[in-house]
Structure formats: structure tokens, C-alpha cells
Amino acid sequence: MQINWLDKIAWNEQGLVPAIAQDVETGKILMLAWMNREALQLTVQHKRAVYWSRSRTKLWFKGEESGQIQHIKDIRLDCDNDVILLSVEQTGVACHTGRHNCFFQQLQDEQWVTVEPVLKDPATLYSN
Amino acid sequence: MQINWLDKIAWNEQGLVPAIAQDVETGKILMLAWMNREALQLTVQHKRAVYWSRSRTKLWFKGEESGQIQHIKDIRLDCDNDVILLSVEQTGVACHTGRHNCFFQQLQDEQWVTVEPVLKDPATLYSN
Lengths: 128, 128
Description:
homodimer; mainly beta; Ubiquitin-like (UB roll); four-stranded mixed beta sheet; two-stranded antiparallel ribbon; 2 helices
């Protein structure tokens, strides 16, 4: 008997897995967010990233408010079945700070230094 | 007063953060593992990836047994201060299965299909 592809995933105690979003063109890591079963199912169905917001405790249709959508090009699962890797085509910027990606703090001599510019005013991303 | 760079990190309830390892040359994602405060401190100190093994509940000096070391080239922190991104120079293969990286299962028509070859016999990685 074939198991459902969603049952293969080793969901954590909260029913979540981390999902890494990588830019399909540049290979840059955009962000890491979390998914529950429904979020992953919706992601596959709509071919757009849908996460589970742990802070708002609800489904997070990435780009729904900001317009910064992630179109899914490829989905991978790791050897332990507990991490998802998404290859995505990112509309605009991935980070809520208006930066290209969320990993803009670089460790330099025991200090975190911001090394990526703000490309979009965050106020314009969440104006509605 | 300047806070310690380790105090900026939003460790989870278990005192851990996820750390993504990315190949500095190819941009490929190698793996995701977890770090506690000591693991990250040792990583910076030795310029080699040190993780916290959740299954073995101890520090995991990546490559100590297998020889598959990760030399650290860059360390980033995300906007929420709760995900680490490592750029690494990977010796050999990253995955314990002997594959280049851990994300070798691709979702194809609701099935996870293995799409990366085994490059090293896992038995030779952990023979001692």
C-alpha cells in the first residue's frame, strides 16, 4: 500500500516542519518559515507558498497582503523527512523589512551587521 | 551597553535555533541542523560547523567521525533573529546517506522521488 506523500513527513510536536525558500534563479536563501499539513497541501495545490504563522497562529498565504508572492518551482524533502526546501520565483522582495531576503545580518567580529539594503519601503508592503 | 552577539539570538524553548548550511561555491542547500548557544560559539571559534544533535542530545562536531567537515565562510542571522544561515566549504558530502546534500527527495505527482545519487558508501563514512 502506498502511503500518502504528506504522511511521510516527520511533523514536529506542534504538527509543523521548517520550510526553506530558495530563489530559483540566484540560489539565494530568501527565508525560513513553518508549514503545517494544510499549508503544504495548499502550497502544492496553488503552486504558491503558504506557511503557518506561529505568531498569528493561522495560515499565511505569502504575499496575500504584500503582493510579494512566491511561485513554487520545486519541492524537496530532506533525509530525515523533517525539513522542506522550496525553490521559488519571488515576486519583489521576500522580507517584511523590504529587503531581498531575511538573512541580512552578517556576523563580523562578534557583531551582527546589516549588509543588505532596503529595496521597498515596508509601509508600502502593508498599506492596506 | 553593547549586548553579546549570542544574546541577540531568539533561542527556542529548547535553547536551539535551526541552522541552514549552504555550499559557498554552488549555492546549493546542503542540510539543516540545530545549534545551541555552545554549538554556535564553537562554530565561530573553530570556523567549522558544530551542531547540537537532538537525537543524540550532545554536541555534534560535523565531520568528526565521517571526515565530512564544513569550513565556515560566512554566518548570517535572519530578520526574526531565530534562523542561522551558514555559508560553508563542504569536504566531501554533507548527507549521512553519502549524497551531496540532504534534500534528495523531490515531490513529483504526490510522490517523493529520490533524485540525487549516492556519491560515497555510507559504510565508509562511519567505519570507525
